[in-house]
Amino acid sequence: MFEINPITFLLILLFLYPMAKGFLFKFSSHGLKGEVEETNRDISFVVSLLLGIYFGRKIFLIHDAGIYQSIYSLIPQSILNIIEGNTFLIYAVVIPGIIYVLHRLFSMILNSLSSLTVFPIIDKIERFLYTRKSIFKRIAGAAFQIPKAACYVILAVYAMNMFFSIFPNEKFNKYVETSTPYKYVCKGIVVPAMNSKLAKQIPDIVSNSFRIVIDESADGKSLPGKFGNATVYYNGVTLDEGVRSNSEIREYSKELTRSETDAYGKAQAIYHWVGSNITYDYDKATKVLNNDFDVDSGAIPAYETRKGICFDYACLYVAMCRANGIKVRLITGEGFNGVTWVSHAWNQVYIPEQDAWINVDTTFYKGGNYFDSRSFGLDHRGAEIAGEW
């Protein structure tokens, strides 16, 4: 039986509603001017929403470069003490405040421009349609509702994207993955505006292309976490096989970090090399998505082919850290790729100077800074230690 995707259905309804309303009530100069002002408010809100989130995140959550760091440093320390690290407060109070100010400003600008340019055009169109048949007026009424219809869809996608990023739901996740309009608007408008380069750089990254299979019939090596003594296969190989290294990797890893004097610098140098030299393997991702594990996985294949998916990135990072005597973990959990939460693997390294484990994600390298980042937790969750060395 054919199943209608509720997200797709909702977005189609939201797009058609204002157009159907315009068709039913026909084109009217007086009514349309009011609609233009309302549309101006909608457009200014969408623009303010996207810009407010973009700059709000840059200033209050990331603030690690350029003008955003400068703006952040100008905020009184008493205010910073309240909002620092409080993601809920930033999203619930600070960013909405920025959005409100921008919304008022853009509404005023758009209404002024409409009075000078759009309203005279509307009057001319009304005079043109005055003697025309009713159907022409209905079509014109529907056509002038397209900007508002687009705003409705963008707002709905943004609201669902934000809600789902904070409150993941497996059923909703399934609908998101199969809703073409949602993914199109999300990747084309919402994600880039929210400063996640991830979906633009690697559109289908870790699209559940990470499979963990537990073989309880075999007496495997005991692993940390919930698997006990079962043999655990990650994309078709065991963890030991995945992180296995060779002399070439070990020698190159040591040469790569020769100029660094501490664990932090060495771990960061390895992060930059893996992230910039390993290419995401879409063909392999497709095979794994289809449960085809007749592929080479782990550190050695990633190093030799310069390609891999998240598990391969994480295994190679483990191998290169171990060659430098750096304590390292392979972590499994979920990553938010800008559209949906998907199965993912990344790393943690121990920094003796800080007496702390820091998060590292070489797979997301093209999406921004994922080495000891303040905002790492915004798109990573459910971390479990698969192995530690």
Structure at a glance:
The protein is an alpha+beta fold and 389 residues long.
Describe the structure.
- The protein is an alpha+beta fold.
- It has helices spanning 6-25, 29-62, 66-74, 77-83, 87-129, 134-143, 146-166, 170-178, 180-193, 198-201, 239-243, 247-256, 263-277, 282-289, 299-305, 310-323; strands at 212-215, 231-234, 237-238, 279-280, 307-308, 328-336, 341-351, 356-360, 380-388.
- The protein is built from 16 helices and nine strands.
- The strands form three sheets. Strands 8-7-6-9 form a four-stranded antiparallel sheet. A three-stranded antiparallel sheet has the order 1-2-3.
- α1 (6-25) runs antiparallel to α7, α7 crosses α9 (180-193) and α12 crosses α16.
- The radius of gyration is 26 Å and the shape is elongated.
The best one-word shape is elongated
What is the N-to-C order of secondary-structure elements (H for helix, E for strand)?
HHHHHHHHHHEEEHHHEHHEHEEEE
Q: In percent terms, what proportion of residues is strand? A: 5-15%
Look at the helices and sheets and give the structural class: alpha+beta
Poorly predicted runs of 5 or more residues: 196-207, 216-228
Major β-sheet profile: 4 strands, antiparallel
Strand order of the largest sheet: 8-7-6-9
